[in-house]
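User: Teach me something about this protein's shape.
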Amino acid sequence: MVRRDAGPALAWLVAAAFATCPIFWHHGACSTAYVSECFASTLVAASALALGARRLGFVAAGLIFAVAGGLRPNVMVTLAPVFFLGLFAARPNRREAALALGAAGLGILGWFVPMVLASGGWARYRLAAAALAGWQLDVGSVFAGKTAHLVPKAEELGLYLVDGANLVLVLPLLGGLALLRQRRASLRHLLFLLAWFLPGAFVYLAHHLPKSGYVLTLLPAFFVAAAWSCATFPSRPAGERRPWLWRCGVAIFLLYGLTNTICFFVAVPGELAEFRRARLAVPDPVVVTGDYGRLSLRYRTYPQRQMFRELDRLGPDDLALFLFGAHELHRLASTHRPARWLVASSVDHAAALSNRAEDRCLHSF
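Assistant: First, the predicted structure itself:
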């Protein structure tokens, strides 16, 4: 997406900068599903852009959409608009449209049917899906009439996006203002970015946004917009780039990578842990930790080395309790110390998980 419009050098720089995105790095280090969802989002968006320019076949685009849905089924809802925008931009005839939709449909069946069978059949799958949907509706969905959650969710969504994009947000603003001033903005690129970003943002705002990893489907759009802004800065005379603005864009990407790398390693949230320990009245031998939250701008992540040091200080009979939905931290810690008593408690999901072999199961409260 970036290479064709901004050149390979800037494309590599943008990719390297995104690798240091605090949210991407945190969930990547902890090996959560949200990183694969980020990959699925970028893959579908890139294929839609290529399809719209007829640089990608209709069957390939349909199969890519199906594969992305297999990685994370909810992306079929949030990414369907950008997929269909790419299909519409390609101006297909009936046969070409049928090929794209048929390939997508067959690809989806290729993973959906085995998933239902592995779940124990259609009845059990429907029961599990209904339970998950009911929980999501119950914890603050607008579709369940809980409009009071809109403002807090908007705050969280904005906080996560600013946390993830931070310095990169400057470039689309500068580039957008410059392009509008020169009346050279590309309607095609603008529609593409909106179709990529708005559906997911609406779902998270109105329905479900439990943690920062969800916005990894949206953040790549900011980086692509920033790169396109660098590539299309107008100049004097018209038609030439302004060298200083181009250098400014490159400098911001470099500064983003450096700043977020430093923050990732130094942001040890001991103060937050002490605050939670005091509120929960947890005994001293218990280590309190957690996932991203409303304070993600201040407490970015839980560095692995710090967590490992804390675990190594515990005795063989001490218990480490992971709270606030920290499933990925529990998984990381259990790999580091498989013989240690580690328990993850998720209040939202009403469940607890232990890593001990004799207690390796999910317990509902």
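Now, about its shape. Residues 37 and 72 are 6 Å apart (CA to CA). The radius of gyration is 23 Å. If you'd like, I can walk through any region in more detail.
User: That's plenty for now, thanks!
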